[in-house]
Amino acid sequence: MTIDRKRLVDLLDYDADTGVFVWRVRRGRIQAGARAGTIAKEGYRVIQIDWRIYRAGRLAWFYITGVWPVREIDHFDRDPANDSFRNLRDVDDVQQARNKAGWKRNPTGMRGVTVVKPSKERGTTSIRYAAHIGVGGKQKWLGQFATIDEAIAARRAAEIVEGY
After folding, report:
1. Using one digit for the tens of pLDDT, what is the confidence trace for 114-147?
2. What is the pTM for the complete model shown?
3. Is beta strand 88-91 parallel, antiparallel or unpaired with respect to 72-75?
4. Whose CA is closest to 39, among 13, 12, 20?
5. In terms of residue numbers, what domain contains 42?
């Protein structure tokens, strides 16, 4: 059984700007006023209430809106420990996957931006950068660019247009 909002508000204070929960009451060895929760191995802050563990992002959504998130709570800035309310959004699996960071083996660090190495066959002599985006299950080519900043700008503009 999940916690009700009255119980949550009785136990915890939440600062929507910082995303920090603090205990309003003493809980065993934990003093009132202490920061609630711990960081789990995935990087999310979790808080145990009445022998049940909750992710702080979901508690924050419930604390502010009064309703549990219907889908997944996504951290817009990709920092799972940043539970400020402006950083949280209730999204479906597809939207959540779109906000994941690029592959670790991608040297650009930006999803949808890759390095195009020089090739005599293609007549290129310098490194260029390519940008693409997935739309409706298909890849949409955004072009090749001389600098990584241009490729990232093209990718971000396409994300806005496609409603990412």
Report:
1. 888 876 666 666 788 899 888 877 888 999 998 8
2. 0.64
3. antiparallel
4. 20
5. 5-95
